[in-house]
Amino acid sequence: MSTLFEKIIARDIPAEILYEDEVCIAIKDIEPQAPVHFLVIPKKVIARLGEAEKSDQSSLGHLLITVAQVARELGLEEGYRTVINHGVHGGETVPHLHVHVLGGRQMMWPPG
Ligand code: AMP
What is the per-residue DSSP string for 66-103? Predict the structure, then answer.
């Protein structure tokens, strides 16, 4: 059973793709919570951060480098927020690791 994001990577479900390489894909979030809201997703299915293994170390670094690259390309010079939701209390809804990137407005702290 494929995850939602695997289906997007396979082009079985449409999405607005911002960037893609052999390790990850960046797509616009379908329900944006800020003027700019995109997700950076590893192609290898890691259900959530707590299930990442030592061997995923370079892929996880790659995700963050990609976050910064896509944010730069989208003109988020004023800043942005990155979020990884883990498990029930974290508010995770899709069990395929992804980094949220939110920008284009002032973020608040503490987050909800
Ligand atoms: P999370 O709640 O952290 O697991 O985040 C899942 C995110 O995936 C949510 O922000 C959803 O809006 C987003 N999402 C769900 N379905 C799609 C889709 N088909 N295309 C793009 N983003 C989606």
Answer: HHHHHHHHTT-TT-EEEE---HHHHT--SSS--EEEEE
Q: Residue range 85-93: average pLDDT? A: 97
pTM greater than 0.90: yes
Closest CA to 25 of 97, 102, 92, 108: 97
Question: d(Cα 2, Cα 6) in Å, to the nearest integer?
Answer: 6
Structure tokens at 47: 């259900």
Establish whether residue 18 lines the binding site of ligand 1, counting it when its CB lies within 6 angstroms of any ligand atom.
no
CA proximity to 63, closest of 96, 109, 104: 96
Active-site residue list: 98
Average pLDDT for residues 6-29, to the nearest whole number?
98
